[in-house]
Amino acid sequence: MTLQSPQKTEGEVFAFIKELSGKLIERRRRRDRVSQSRLAQVITRSERWLREIEGGVTTSMLEDHIRCAHALDMATPHLFIPLLATEHKMAVPRELLLQDDLWDLECEMLDVVGRHQEAAASRLSARAGLYSPRAR
User: Fold this and answer.
1) Contact indicator for 68, 78 with CB cutoff of 8 Å
2) H-type helices in 5-102, by residue range?
3) Is the pTM for the entire model greater than 0.70?
């Protein structure tokens, strides 16, 4: 199953992300044997609030999902990859996002960002050298 972004409205994309995130948060919480009560206490929210997050309630905010994920030592690519794909009118493979560990993917993405940053800094440095008053 994939999320085909071009026909999805912004609300549908966010609903998909929140539903997926809630399932992943619940799965991680259960895997780590953390009760809803304990997790809610750690993030200073109510159990009802946490049930809504885990249920994918669309009125929750993405920052709430981030707060829960971080409390469970989860990374958050399942929140941001669909947003990025949607902007580029790409399908998002749900199977990818349901994986428990996207560490390797995250590292590869950060390597690309790092290489892009290095190349941009190098270009800026080269331009500064070319146009520097001292270079004349």
Assistant:
1) no
2) 10-31, 36-42, 47-54, 62-71, 77-87, 94-97
3) yes
